[in-house]
Amino acid sequence: MTRSATVERETSETSVRLTLDLDGDGSATVSTGVPFFDHMLEAFGRHGLFALDVSAEGDLAVDAHHTVEDVGICLGTAFARALGDKSGIRRFGSAIVPMDEAMVLAAVDVSGRGQCHYAVDVPIEIIGTFDTTLAKEFMIALAANAGITVHVMAFAGENAHHIIEAAFKALARALAEAVSLDPRVTGVPSTKGSL
Fold first, then answer.
1. Which residue has the higher pLDDT, 187 or 133?
2. Does the pLDDT at position 194 exceed 80?
3. Is 56 in contact with 70 (CB distance < 8 Å)?
4. Quick check: 191 pLDDT over 90?
5. pTM exceeds 0.85 for this model
6. Contact status, residue 41 vs residue 74, Cβ threshold 8 Å
7. Cross-strand partners of 95
8. Higher pLDDT, 193 or 53
9. DSSP readout, the chain?
10. Sorting pLDDT into bands at 50, 70 and 90, what band is 186?
11. Phi and psi dihedrals of 131, rounded to 5?
């Protein structure tokens, strides 16, 4: 069974093509025109052990907002498609990731009810060309379009780079656990019979 999806999104602001394989090897090829965001997506693929290929062009002369959000939309859509009916998955996942002085928790539920609760106190600044407020926008877009409940909470951190990178890695690890197949799970992991 192949658990992968390719998503394309064309708007007047962005052009995104993204391929996700849930059972990948952690390889990631990413080009968004936003170097720090590329670094975060590469870390996401590596630490989630997903195969991820992202190519995006956006109106970066304005700022990176549309590019980052639309990649989140596409990644969330790819998760939803790759999961199919969600049979056999663990459904829940969580991870705590430290990065130097920063420590971030991510917990997810592949619930069918996409929402993001983001309690990350990060300095508002620009890392390269990446506005630190965009990390939240990316995670909201991913959660909403994947139909996954996402909680991200920072327990410690001062350096914006460290905090955001820990958040991306924690989310990747939590998602990897939640979407992994468990041979003991029969059908969909819900008493309702659907997710």
1. 133
2. no
3. yes
4. no
5. yes
6. no
7. 106
8. 53
9. ---EEEEEEE-SSEEEEEEEETT--S-EEEE-S-HHHHHHHHHHHHHHT-EEEEEEEE-TTT-SHHHHHHHHHHHHHHHHHHHTT-TTB--EEEEEEEETTEEEEEEEE--S--EEEEE------EETTEETTHHHHHHHHHHHHHT-EEEEEEEE-S-HHHHHHHHHHHHHHHHHHHHSB-TT--S-SSTTS--
10. confident
11. -75, 125
- Give me the amino acid identity at 70: D
Four-way CATH pick for 4-179: 3.40.50.410, 3.10.450.50, 3.30.230.40, 3.30.980.40: 3.30.230.40
Neighbours of 62 (CB within 10 A): 10
Q: What pLDDT score was predicted for residue 66?
A: 98
* Residue showing tokens 């924690």: 170
The confidence band for 20, taking pLDDT boundaries of 50, 70 and 90, is very high
Residue with tokens 């069974």: 1
